[in-house]
Amino acid sequence: MNFQTFKLKLANMLKTSTNQRWIHRTEKFQRALLQFRVILTKRVPTAATDGLVILLNEDFFESLDFEEKIGLLKHEILHVKFDHPRRFLESKFTNHE
Questions:
Q1: pLDDT per residue as tens digits for the range 1-34
Q2: d(CA 94, CA 96)
Q3: Contact, 14 vs 24, CB < 8 A?
Q4: Does 37 have pLDDT greater than 70?
Q5: Residue 44 and residue 28: Cα distance in Å, rounded?
Q6: Other CB atoms closer than 10 Å to residue 93's CB: what's the count?
Q7: Neighbour order of strands in the sheet with 47-49
Q8: Is 40 exposed, middle or buried (0-12, 13-18, 19+ CB in 10 A)?
């Protein structure tokens, strides 16, 4: 399932679900996801974010099931919520050696 199909399935599930708690959590997730530009690329092995953009390896993303896709994207969004990109830059640490 590619990223566009994933977004459509998520939207459709929101329309048809009767579980109010799930709807609330999913709407929050969907709003958070809309704040990011998502780029499909082979430059990352799985996924990454700089706080503005979420990079997804399309092959990796398509290998995940629906729940795993949600988990991966929530993980990347939480990096931003907890200010990891800024903290990483300030640490002068690099994982590109």
A1: 677 777 777 777 666 666 666 656 677 777 777 7
A2: 5
A3: no
A4: yes
A5: 26
A6: 9
A7: 37-40, 53-56, 47-49
A8: middle
